[in-house]
Amino acid sequence: MYKAMTIAGSDSGGGAGIQADLKTFQERNVFGTSAITALTAQNTLGVQGVYPQSLECVEAQVDAVLSDIGTDAVKTGMLFSASLIRLVANKLDEYQVNNLVIDPVMIAKGGAPLLQEEAVVELRETLLPLGKVVTPNLPEAGKILDGRKIETIEEMEQAAKDIQAMGPEAVVIKGGHLGSEERSVDVLYDGERFFHYDSERISTKHTHGTGCTFSACIAAELAKGKNIPEAVKIAKYYITAAIRYSLNVGNGIGPTNHSAYRLHSLSVK
Ligand SMILES: Nc1ncnc2c1ncn2[C@@H]1O[C@H](COP(=O)(O)OP(=O)(O)O)[C@@H](O)[C@H]1O
Ligand SMILES: Cc1ncc(COP(=O)(O)OP(=O)(O)O)c(N)n1
């Protein structure tokens, strides 16, 4: 059984964070483990509270998992502070994790900050160079690039290239926040080539946890031995199905449907 670990925040509402990651790992047939960096009191209406865990607590979780079970890939999500980022980077280095997917989570859809402003420098300088794949959305890529505006596919390509130059092997800029009414395009740069992953833009408000689910799927596929362009291709199909059949639970922005790909017998074309 291949294994994947998520180091991220808990979403009590079940649509994003650790919960989305573990559901995705299960659906992609890898054994999922976790280390929780912060608890959030969260639902479809937004984030009501953020409770970061101590360095000691996060370190103990990572050590417990990696010293015994091990892993074929790690995905990081909400890391909240510069000190947690430093700790996680040290641990990934200590356990020589190769397949690291970094989702540089900064702000929840409702606007709640999930990363302290001053931690962006630590993210850029300490964590990004360790990544196999980094998956920023447009605002996150803009922040990593010191406030740059990214509004076109050409600007996404340049941003992917500039972030890749900071050290990770590859960068996928996610296009969920792009202005287009019709298509949702993600751009991968692997240091040599650009790949575009294009899907229809699904008209739904229930998109809570899209970024977490997408990056967790990439980690699961890398764990199984897929190369980066293949892993991103599968993740794009998986998230598109999850959004197409997203769930109207709660009174706000509902979660994606992690079982959609399997329940509707979809496959990668
Ligand atoms: N309405 C939509 N229709 C189809 N795909 C979407 C839609 N919204 C987001 N996506 C896809 O979901 C994935 C996550 O993107 P995005 O929503 O930008 O991330 P985040 O949740 O980090 O903001 C990407 O593959 C993106 O193209
Ligand atoms: C605990 C936690 N982690 C990450 C997020 C952000 O998830 P994302 O997939 O970007 O989804 P939205 O918040 O944009 O819906 C989160 N909300 N909570």
Automatic annotation (TrEMBL):
What reaction is this protein's catalytic activity? 4-amino-5-hydroxymethyl-2-methylpyrimidine + ATP = 4-amino-2-methyl-5-(phosphooxymethyl)pyrimidine + ADP + H(+); 4-amino-2-methyl-5-(phosphooxymethyl)pyrimidine + ATP = 4-amino-2-methyl-5-(diphosphooxymethyl)pyrimidine + ADP
Sorted alphabetically, which keywords does the UniProt record give?
Answer: ATP-binding, Kinase, Nucleotide-binding, Thiamine biosynthesis, Transferase
Gene3D superfamilies cross-referenced by the UniProt entry: 3.40.1190.20
Record-level GO cellular component terms: cytosol
Q: Name one GO biological process term.
A: thiamine biosynthetic process
Known EC number = 2.7.1.49, 2.7.4.7
In this protein, which residues make up the domain named Pyridoxamine kinase/Phosphomethylpyrimidine kinase?
Answer: 11-257
Pathway per the UniProt entry? Cofactor biosynthesis; thiamine diphosphate biosynthesis; 4-amino-2-methyl-5-diphosphomethylpyrimidine from 5-amino-1-(5-phospho-D-ribosyl)imidazole: step 2/3; Cofactor biosynthesis; thiamine diphosphate biosynthesis; 4-amino-2-methyl-5-diphosphomethylpyrimidine from 5-amino-1-(5-phospho-D-ribosyl)imidazole: step 3/3
- GO function terms (MF aspect): ATP binding; hydroxymethylpyrimidine kinase activity; phosphomethylpyrimidine kinase activity
> Ribosomal protein: is it a keyword of this entry?
no
One Pfam family it belongs to:
Phos_pyr_kin
Give the source's domain of life in one word: Bacteria
Report the PANTHER family cross-referenced here.
HYDROXYMETHYLPYRIMIDINE_PHOSPHOMETHYLPYRIMIDINE KINASE THI20-RELATED, PHOSPHOMETHYLPYRIMIDINE KINASE
Record's family? Belongs to the ThiD family.
Q: Sorted alphabetically, which NCBIfam families does this protein's record hold? A: HMP-P_kinase
Q: What is this protein called?
A: Hydroxymethylpyrimidine/phosphomethylpyrimidine kinase
Upper lineage is: Bacteria, Bacillati, Bacillota, Bacilli, Bacillales
